[in-house]
Amino acid sequence: MEFKRARTDEQRHERRRQILDTAAAMLTQMPVAKLTLNELSRRVGLAKSNVLRYFESREAVLLDLLDVEMKEWLAHLDRALTGCDGTPRQRGDELAAVLAESLAERPILCDLASAHAGVLEQNVSTEVAIQHKLATRRAYEEQTRLFLRCLPELGVQDAAHLAATATLITAAAWPYSQPSEALLAAYAADPAVAAMRTDFTDLLRQTLAVTISGLLARRENLPVGAAAIGESPR
Length: 234
Prior knowledge:
This protein is mainly α.
């Protein structure tokens, strides 16, 4: 394909979108670790040097894609977390279930999250890092707002702690729930080994439910007028 440089902001935006869409399509076929800039360039139909006109590195592409996937997940949560009823424990369990099930339905987001700190943030400029961290901050703030919609009892600081915990557990649990061919064969061959297989949705749901219960219990046990960890005294 003959390369034609995008000359307007709209054309540049469209070219970047094409690159991101191609990267997302590739991640339905392979994990982050196997996505190379050479193959991405080939599938987009551009030379690698031309792809680098729009993104400074493979990692910059994937960080941008992570931000896109996060926005789509938050939009889903905004629609899903509308009618939380019951006791705080019941609402907490419902919130944990919605989070776990919605993340399990987004393997690209989970795979990118699992590679986030160790891979994606390692080959980018300060400018890209700042842009990404600001986007991450906005995502945490939106999660906090949505969690408080279901569980106002958490308070802002503990809702933010829950958002951070959901990110960390997702990043840690996802790789364990994606076994290699050798492990799949081991699970099939030995029931004792099969019992060790990680169910991503169940693990995430249980961990988040326990986290929510612990955060609520800690708040209930605070002396009158005391502040939770990370909160300023009133």
